[in-house]
From TrEMBL:
It comes from the Eukaryota. It comes from Heligmosomoides polygyrus. This is RPGR1_C domain-containing protein. InterPro entries: C2_domain_sf. Keywords: Signal. The lineage of its organism: Eukaryota, Metazoa, Ecdysozoa, Nematoda, Chromadorea. Residues 1-19 form the signal peptide.
């Protein structure tokens, strides 16, 4: 009954009260128009009714394709004096995971592990791009990250049941992320340089517009 009253108020405001059909009924919590013939503005009324009822079913946190953050994991290099060049790391495969906003880990990891390069400064190729389509809530969270200076953490991990976290790299996020390649360093807990990672972080141009409306 409350919905019907709101609808009638909507019609009054829209100057469409004269377009009401002879009978408006509630059935199973839905507004139904009677099958009686409507006035000449029938089509317009139905269109506005669809818009009105759509308000009740609209998700407040819809995901839009235009609100996109892309993370492209390109390649890894092992510097000349890295511990990862030790023979004990021969035949070892690694992957990279990262922590971004509140996305689960399974959405924030390279799908394939690659062999560690055995020649200094020779690239190991991931060539993996992950796109995140953000809801308005996550866009707000991203803006909060930027304001607080939060960094994006990447972890280099060995493949296998006894997987080991080898090193961590960090990237400071920018509000105007571009398509330029950035190189970050993987460091162990003692700050020792293990590897370098080339990656690209990019945002859609209008990603923050939803917070201004």
């Amino acid at each position: 009954m409350l919905r019907l009253r709101i609808f009638l108020a909507f019609l009054l405001q829209a100057n469409l009260i004269s377009c009401l059909p002879p009978k408006v009924v509630l059935w199973k919590n839905r507004l139904l128009l009677s099958t009686h013939k409507l006035p000449w503005r029938r089509k317009r009324l139905r269109m506005r009714l669809d818009v009105f009822l759509g308000i009740f079913h609209r998700s407040p946190d819809r995901v839009y394709q235009s609100r996109t953050v892309s993370i492209f994991i390109d390649r890894i290099y092992i510097p000349e004096f890295s511990r990862l060049l030790h023979p004990s790391f021969d035949n070892v495969k690694v992957y990279v995971d990262w922590f971004f906003l509140d996305y689960p880990l399974e959405e924030s990891r390279t799908p394939m592990a690659i062999p560690l390069p055995r020649i200094p400064d020779s690239p190991g190729l991931f060539v993996y791009k992950k796109e995140f389509h953000l809801s308005r809530r996550r866009v707000a969270l991203l803006e909060q990250w930027l304001e607080l200076g939060n960094r994006l953490d990447f972890t280099l991990i060995t493949e296998g049941e006894d997987s080991e976290e080898l090193a961590v790299a960090q990237l400071e996020l920018s509000r105007t992320a571009t398509d330029e390649t950035t190189t970050i360093q993987f460091l162990d807990i003692n700050g020792e340089h293990y590897a370098d990672l080339d990656l690209v972080i990019s945002y859609s141009s209008d990603i923050f517009d939803c917070l201004r409306s």
